[in-house]
Amino acid sequence: MRTDSSPGTLPAREHLPAGDAGTPVLDVVIPVYNEEKDLQPCVLRLHEHLRRTFPYAFRITIADNASTDTTPLVSQRLEAEIPEVRAFRLEQKGRGRALRTVWSASDAPVLAYMDVDLSTDLNALLPLVAPLISGHSDLAIGSRLARSSRVVRGPKREFISRAYNLILRGSLHARFSDAQCGFKAIRRDVAQVLLPLVEDTGWFFDTEMLVIAERAGLRIHEVPVDWVDDPDSTVHIVRTATEDLKGVWRVGKALATGALPLDRITRPFGDDPRDRDVQDVPKGLARQLVGFCVVGGLSTLFYLLLYSVFRQFCGSQIANALALLVSAVANTAANRRLTFGVRGRGGAVRHQAQGLVVFGIGLALTSGSLAALDAATSDPAHSTELAVLIAANLAATVLRFLLFRAWVFPERDENPSRSTVVTTHTPATTPSATPAYGTQQQPYAPRQPYAPLPTRPTANPYATAPHTPHTPYTPQTPYPPQSPYDATVPSQPVRPTETDPRNS
Q1: CA–CA separation, 491 vs 493, rounded Å?
Q2: Which residues, 6 or more positions from 11, have their beta carbon under 8 angstroms from its beta carbon?
Q3: 478 versus 397: which is more confidently predicted?
Q4: Contact between 443 and 275 (Cβ < 8 Å)
Q5: In 186-315, where does DSSP find H-type helix?
Q6: Counting CB atoms within 10 angstroms of each CB, which of 58, 290, 403, 486 has the fewest?
């Protein structure tokens, strides 16, 4: 169901409708490794909280990462006793591997996970998944570093957490505040497209997923949380930090070289404002003009500074040519990125070559002005030369902007006949095999709308009929290959008419 929009406004995203169906709306995954003591209290507490506060049907999936203690037995017992609990066993360790496997096989439209110690207060769970149900956001994370968060932990972990997020902001330009809080959620249709691009299978899985999602333009919602540190945590801080730094280097290198096919995620959902032409919205001439003036002013100061330096060692004509050449290269690069919004390395050499042609025109204007000044007086003052150059540069600047806008960085409309486009935000169909980075991608098919959200029964299921043991929960397809660039992430579509025989 979509919110009606008047002509010329941006259409709303798809809201998952409420209704009766057999598929859970929310699937909360709890990755565990040798957690025989904490697993049962965690699941019972989470189940009680969801049963009491969550208005839709839900599922709790225990993802056992090759535990060697009695954790598998505890998982199976909880699965047999509680209808909403599923147990899943992996024979390899890795939190990222567990999340990718269970999320890929889940049929719930909203997927989440949390740590088994429940350090995060569960009152933040509904605010975490609400923006995903409404269609407002694509991912949601709990943040311990938000201003309104209330966190209790030691100075060592506080320093490591803030230092790690500072590294992410400085190296990967991440804008989210907390990458490693074990409290996150994602829409299943987004996960189908995003998970094949995530390589890490351990603790860096969260960071890599968030960085790729943010670079692709997906919306990440942050929820301030109340968080109390678990002093008995088994996480190896030094080893985890080392692996995270290796992951930062790998992802940063992939982003710098263009190895990540971000376009596959940027516009698969059909409602990106950049894909629409909205009526009565200007094409950006005013913004480009302001940006060009700012860049031009700074370039002029840079040019005059260079001219004054070069004039100490050579004549006016040579100093003018050198100063104009250096400032023209910098001016073209700055206008390319800031004024006309051209990003990436594609066409950079051609743009610089065209910029040098524009530079030649500016050189002719300024050199002609200096030649006219030299013809008028044999020994002009330095201030007079600067005044003449400023006047000549003003004329060259106007001509440069026109040439930049019409020739170097023209607006290219791939579909000139397209008018205002109002598209729907519908879930993606089951993706095919994911090709390697750098290969030609096929366009995504339009997503089909979600089935109505199932509501949780109000009656006590335990009082109406005895629970019948059921078969263990297993994914629909085997775990995808380890290579992140050619893996297939299968998924099962939502079937609104299917009912779970285990639910009374």
Answers
A1: 6
A2: 2, 3, 5, 271, 422, 423, 424
A3: 397
A4: no
A5: 188-194, 205-215, 237-257, 263-266, 285-310
A6: 290
Neighbour tally for 9: CB within 10 Å:
12
Cβ within 8 Å of residue 291, ≥6 positions away: 335, 338, 339
Within 8 A by CB and 6+ apart from 123, the residues are 226
Could you give phi then psi for residue 49, rounded to 5 degrees?
-65, -45
Q: 331-378, pLDDT tens digit by residue?
A: 888 888 888 878 777 778 888 888 888 878 877 887 888 888 888 887
Higher pLDDT, 52 or 271: 52
CB neighbour list of residue 443: distance below 8 Å, 6 or more residues apart: none
Q: Is the model's pLDDT at 162 over the cut of 90?
A: no
Q: How far apart are CA 27 and CA 111, in angstroms?
A: 5
| CA–CA separation, 29 and 381 (whole Å) | 77
Q: How far is CA 354 from the centre of its chain?
A: 34
Say if CB 24 and CB 108 are below 8 A apart. Answer: yes
203, 95 Cβ separation under 8 angstroms: yes
Predicted confidence (pLDDT) at residue 34 exceeds the cutoff of 70: yes
Give the number of other Cβ atoms within 10 Å of residue 501's Cβ: 9
pLDDT tens-place string over residues 127-154: 999 999 988 899 999 998 888 889 888 7
Q: Is the dihedral of CA 377, 380, 383, 387 positive or negative?
A: positive
